[in-house]
Amino acid sequence: MSEVYLREDLQAAWRDRDIFDAAFDLEGEVYRAVATRRTLRTCIDGKVYFAKLHMGVGWDEIFKNLVTLKLPVIGAENEYRACRHLEEHGIQAPRVAAYGRRGGNPARVRSFVITDELAGRESLEDLTNRWFDDPPHPARKRALVMAVAGFARRFHGAGVIHRDFYICHLLLDVKKFTQNVVDLAVLDLHRAQIHTRIPRRWLIRDLAALLFSTLDLPLSRRAWLRFVRVYRARPLREVFAEEGVFWEAVYQRALMLYRKAGKTGLVKGYFDAAG
Fold it and tell me: N or C: which end of the chain has fewer CB within 10 A?
């Protein structure tokens, strides 16, 4: 069983090659390498791409996920589908140049996805980490919060759940930001899901992950309320009257993530999770 997508630029570059051999022979700057997956920045015919190469997860990994009620990611298909879907909905994400999947055994499927580089962008995590030494003007901070809320609304409105929806996976166009324009893109969609109607529990998880990744930042409660208002595009009074339980669940899950991360030193500890 196999499936292949190849954009014109890579059709020309790999005209006389087996595309699976061409993809898995790619070399470049390795960003992540584990036993079953490798991510690298590479150059093909003078153009920069990112390649994610999946070598098959094995039955142990599949069973481990199923036992813990998690959906196993067995290849590049999720990322391929999500990137193409977001492009169709006008939401900035890596543009797919090539995708391939080969094999019928779920534990041994080999797959890859190759995307254009999101050049000239910086993660919101890197940007906001500088706020402690170089605080932004309140208006820029406010504009950024509202832009993230609007982006999250459109992202979820397209029926997509990220499953790792942290600010490190949101990229800002640096040049436009110097001109006070907030242009965001999303990446690392290998766990993403596409739904006709997003289940409540998955929406809570995505929003809680986003909130968790901002708890250490110098943001006020008002910023969170502003996010909720823009995300729902409705007055706060209406939102909390109808969805108070939902947003409390988001907040409590974000606290749980923060406390858990605090035990392993993955957060700065600036936020009072006990308060």
Answer: C
